[in-house]
Fold this sequence. Notes:
Shape: flat
Oligomer: single chain
Distance between the termini: 19 Å
Structural class: mainly alpha
Helix content: over 70%
Amino acid sequence: MDLIQFHSFSSAWYWFALIAIWAVFCQLYLGMSYHQLRLARQGHPERQGVLLRALALYLERMRWSTVSNIGPFVAGLCAFVLSFWSVVAFFYNVEILQAFFFLFVPLGPSLILRWRLARRLAKEIPDFEAVFRQIRTIRYWTLLSSFLTILMSTFWGVRVILREYSVF
């Protein structure tokens, strides 16, 4: 008998958190809402300059608080933690780690794309149309990643529920 039970995939809070994280993550790019960017592009050209200035301020604040280059030690440490996490979660069947894996690990590639875009834009901010195209490309990959993550975690969650919990 387990004193503490972690039934992640059968919890409505897990699914709410998964969908909420991806919903917010698919809407905000470099401190700006994609909806505002799209409105500025379609019908309100006076907002484009304001959004570019807001982007410049965001990039300036980001430059104050981040390191410009990630060293090999940090990259190796992240790779070790990620591989250790995945082995413990899936080889040893730890459900809570599996749930957190599906919750946070797929955010990584999109974060890397955003970080690379921010570094490119910090050097020189192009016109609004070029910035919008680059953010739209990252949004496409983020939406695809969110769809695949929710789909895979749903199938994995159903598998865990059918295997671990008695239905009758």
